[in-house]
């Protein structure tokens, strides 16, 4: 079956919601997380339909300045899976439609 292209902003919205829901530092590195979302939505809109949304979303996640929070593309995710890594945070992964989903929520009782 052919995959349907995602609407522009879908990945940004999904990642923003996941960080909003699961990120431990509720100050988001001293940022207003809602404003961060608005700024990156504006950046994405200004770049138009050919924008590299994953690059823009990675930049948004990097504003957290947290070495444990990062966004992996499909190839990067596949590459680390061979090591069967288990972290304390949330694992984001693409589903069959290439949408970013929570692959593993934080482990109960973990530091996350």
Helix fraction? 40-55%
Along the chain, the helix and strand elements come as HHHHEE
Number of helices: 4
Strand count: 2
| Uncertain parts | none
- Main beta-sheet annotation: 2 strands, antiparallel
The averaged pLDDT comes out at: 81
Give me the Rg, rounded.
14 Å
What fraction of the residues are assigned to beta strands by DSSP?
5-15%
- Category from helices, strands and their pairing: mainly alpha
How does this structure look, described?
The protein is mostly helical. Helices cover 41% and strands 8% of the residues. The chain is built from four helices and two strands. A two-stranded antiparallel sheet has the order 1-2. Strand 1 and strand 2 form a beta hairpin. The longest helix is centred in the middle third of the chain and has 15 residues.
Set down the secondary structure blueprint.
Elements (H helix, E strand, L loop, with lengths): L9 H13 L10 H15 L5 H10 L11 H8 L9 E4 L5 E5 L8
Antiparallel strand pairs: 1-2
Helix pairs in contact: 1-2, 1-3, 2-3
List keywords for this structure.
mainly alpha, globular, single chain, 112 residues, 4 helices, 2 strands, two-stranded antiparallel sheet, 41% helix
């Amino acid at each position: 079956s052919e995959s349907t292209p995602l609407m522009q902003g879908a990945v940004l919205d999904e990642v923003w919601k996941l960080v909003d829901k699961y990120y431990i530092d509720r100050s988001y590195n001293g940022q207003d997380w809602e404003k961060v979302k608005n700024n990156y939505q504006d950046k994405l809109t200004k770049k138009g339909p050919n924008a590299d949304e994953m690059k823009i979303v990675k930049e948004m996640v990097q504003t957290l300045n947290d070495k444990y929070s990062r966004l992996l593309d499909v190839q990067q995710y596949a590459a680390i899976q061979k090591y069967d890594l288990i972290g304390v945070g949330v694992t984001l992964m693409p589903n069959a439609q290439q949408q970013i989903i929570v692959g593993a929520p934080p482990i109960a009782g973990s530091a996350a």
